[in-house]
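User: Sequence in, structure out. Go.
Assistant: Echoing your sequence, followed by the structure tokens.
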Amino acid sequence: MTLPIDREAALQEAAAFRAQNRVPEALMTLARLEIEHPRFSRLYQERGHCQILLRDLPAALAALREAVRLNPTLPSSWDMLEQLYRMAGDTAQATAAARSLATLKQLPVAVVVANSLYADGDLARAGAVIRDYLREDRDNVGALRLLARICKDSDAWAEAETLLASVLERAPDYHDARLDHAAILLHRQKHLPARAEAERLLAHDPNHRDYLKLYAAACVGLGDHAPVIDVYARLLTDEAQSNAEAADLRVWRANALKVVGRQRESIADYHAALAARPEYGVAWFGLANLKAYRFTDGEISQMRALLAQPDAQDMDRIYLSFALGKALEDRAEYAESWHSYARGNSLRRASGRYRPEVAQACAHRLQQTFTAQFFAERADWGAHDPAPIFIVGLPRSGSTLTEQILASHSSVEGTQELTEIGRYVAELCGSDTDCDLPIDPASLQHLAATDARALGERFLSETKAYRGLGRPVFIDKMPNNFWHVGLIHMILPRATIIDVRRDPMACCFSNFKQLFGTTNQEFSYGSDDIAHHYRVYLDLMRHWDAVLPGRVLRVQYEDVVDHLDASVRGLLAHCALPFEPACLTFHETRRSVRTPSSEQVRQPIGREGLAQWRHYAPWLAPLRDALGDALTTYRS
């Protein structure tokens, strides 16, 4: 087994060879170093030194240009570039290099060093250098912004946000810092302040592409898709865009068009994305994820050919595998469809972080914390507003159908899968870095009644941004909130909580054949993990039923399909809503739907989804075995 190269040691070795005039050996060392560390700027600077000794001007220029492209804070590289450009008679480039060098010389040495370390990914050393410097010059906004970027890349998002807020207090017109701040707010699911920052930046420069993209992303986070469609169309009119950027913009626009129900235009944009980048797996999957789209023979052949290419990117291969699985499923070619789904899941699981033992331990800690006595002692706590309806469960359980039925009522607004409750839990209990589950639920025992009420009021305040229609009742359809039923009851005791449940084989297989994105629902990419997660979910919901009797309404998906009228009337009655016929014709309701079921809930209800998994029964024995008695007890 080949040991990884220590990049600093290898760089020093190359420099030593050069000092001994053993340039070929130095270049060989740098070539090996580049294989493992292709973005290490100083290896290219060292290569430039070597090529100068060899009097190879073009090679030296190429190496040094790459060095400063990766790391603009390399004074030696800019110095050499200026001299080489002058030797080559390129006065303009020499002047530009001299200007860059002069800018660096005006900065404190520690800031230049920290920037250079940061550019090369040496976050710990960069952070140490800049923190030492800030002890002497605590108001240097450039140094504070650099520290914030180091914190962000080290996953210290809260500190990064705080640092950038302090920078903007000192320098409100520091637009690069405001852009960083908005991006961090967006990452932390604070979509409304992120959009406000983007709007402020756009007031300064209404045509700045990064500002426009940030604004659009914040709108998507808020569920406001109409302006996004036009923003992306505007960005697409710029002829300077690359094929890769055009493909991204087309996919983002197609996604927004899909959400608002403009399927024909959505399909056209997915196709345009593939015209710009034929191997773009995200666009292929976007078509498949419409659920109603049917691939042609030629498209299926193209996907097979793309998957066979040895240089296909892993993520493209994952998206293509799921897309091809859906295309073949629609043609009843179940054997090849299964193998395509299995390949996609295997690739996706290899990069996943889900650990079943973490989920099991979290459920156990929640059960120990949230006892009947816990709730009895906090009976009158929280904000007593009945407006929220929480729909919980597992993905692909029928929760989008339930949401669509309720959102067809004139008093109910469907928002989206809101992240506020999960964010509050992370703030109060800590969050596991792999599964995003609470680490210390027992910390909630220390909340006072005023804290619980304030948290409930905070939820009601922060979710106003998603309630564009202003209806008295609104839905939070985050399925993962089944973990947080205890906290929801404590801070919003009059909120409605609905658990939508589906037959375990149907639900688990539907998860297996659905690609959820980069980090969402990571339990869903292996039969054992899916089955384990389903069983943990059942166990935790039984606990909530035991300690909060009657608090959670169970909605069985199969019952809704078979007995729509009775199920809808019972659901509305539980929510204290008068019956409205529109809830029975939910498929006619025009609204934004962001989940993979968006096109399905725009169709009349049908039974075809109840037994789709049976087509794959020959390959599902491991799933069935792993589910065990959940197959018969899931209704109890």
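User: And one key feature?
Assistant: Residues 527-547 form the longest helix (21 residues).
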